Amino acid sequence: MTTAVVFPGQGSQQPGMGEAFYRAWPTTRNRLEALSATLGEDLAALCFAGDVKELRMTRNTQPALFGLGVAIYEGLVARYSLDPDYVAGHSLGHFTALAAGGALDSEDGVTLVRKRGELLEAAAGEDSPGTMLAVLLADPQEVAAACADREDVSVGLYNGPRQTVISGAQEGIAAIRKRLAERTRARFRELDVAAAFHSPVMEPAADAVDRTMAEVDLEPAAIPVVSDVSCRIYTDPVVARRDLSEQVTAPVDWHGVVERLQEAGVDRYVVIPPAGTLAGLIERIIPNAEVVALEVPADAAALGCAVRSPEGVSDEGNNRFAAEVAVVTGGTRGIGLATAERFAAGGATTVATYCSDEEAAAEAAVKLGDYDALTAVKQFDVGEFDAVANAFRRIADEHGRPTILVNNAGRMDNGLVVRMDPEQWASVLETNLTGAFYCTREAARQMLRGEGGRIVNVASVAGLRGWAGQANYAASKAGLIGFTRAVARELGDRSIRVNAVAPGYVDTRLNEKHVGDGEVTDQTVSGRAADPREVADVIAFLAGERAAYVNGAVYRVDDGLVG
Description:
By secondary structure, the protein is an alpha/beta fold. The chain is built from 22 helices and 18 strands.
């Protein structure tokens, strides 16, 4: 498959853009922080927390989009084995494409586009900033002809077969709009830009931009670049310098760029965030094109590329969960954390949840952050229905619909049945059984809207054999086993597999009393407790495609404890 990576330009910016990638991919975070240090300004704060007015200022928009684009691209190719055949960019995105293609050092680039933004702002401020107006449903040649007799307005962007953008002074734009409204059935939309880019209004900045460009070293591109001015495919830095200088007043021909890429055999377009506008333009130009619009890190799974292993992580099972969104309740300690790490190492977007232990949650966030995958730690009580429903809605909005759920959240409060008060009984069942029901209900609803999924419930050998002093815990785990088998029958024909694991003694905080007093040595074949990772490996098997024929099963991980 021939792939082009494309980068957006000014007008696509929005507060919060790219934040999920910054939090999920260490390479992206490190690069954006390095570019911030070069510029002497916190680009992350500008992109994520800047208000609309601040972000709209050209001197801010250009380094923000450039820095974010470079950082996300580097995170993408560090995480996935993606080797683009071409790069291209829309307007400002041409600079980002040059950096991605190896022709422009990113630290030189972020300084260059900040200076360029200041020069364009100054040019606009000498008279009036002008504006840009999208003309929809009109022939581009007719739009260009309508502008031909005026010196203060021209076509600034050829975005598609029936989308042209005119750019220029306010008076000129108003006159052309009136003229086109009388002659055509065109519709109009003002763009969210701070000046009339790619128009005669920018002429005062042209010489200064030329001088600024001359101060920057450009190298031959390692990845061929398609110019948005000439539509040429090039690697020669002479072409880059010439076209980027002309771009100040010349129109951007994005329609021509996409057609040129199509002629070159490109059949997949990967759009760097903010991706919506550019992805839409490509789809209108080539309706049958494969367009991968990266809005959240989970979207990258659609590339189908192998996931590169994080440092220190075995390649075994690499890419196994790259297309998955996994939710692990009770995911910040013991079995839950080991399971969340297993999914993250396999490339899954991984959400680990917790109820109240902030210290464990903070430690888990650090551990999960070491994986070059989208990971998140979220707090909610699985025993509260509204909290669960709201949490799963947020997870779907932020990360995508869950495809894997591991019901691991658990509570133990031991006591003899004759001394157990109702609250002691109810609280354990509420977390261990009712919580699993709430989470399964919400996750399954979302899985049914997608392509199915896998649910793994963490039960216990206590649910199979019972233990004195644990009537509440044993009942909850026995109930979870019955729940597993019933739901497996309900959802099996809807491509949702439901299974359970029943661990014995595991070396976790929940079992530390039993592990430490010799009980394990007497009752297991190996004379030891399981490492949480050993249980996590079984959960990962049940959550993976290798267990495609397993449904309604209960896998004991007990070293012969139950015989």
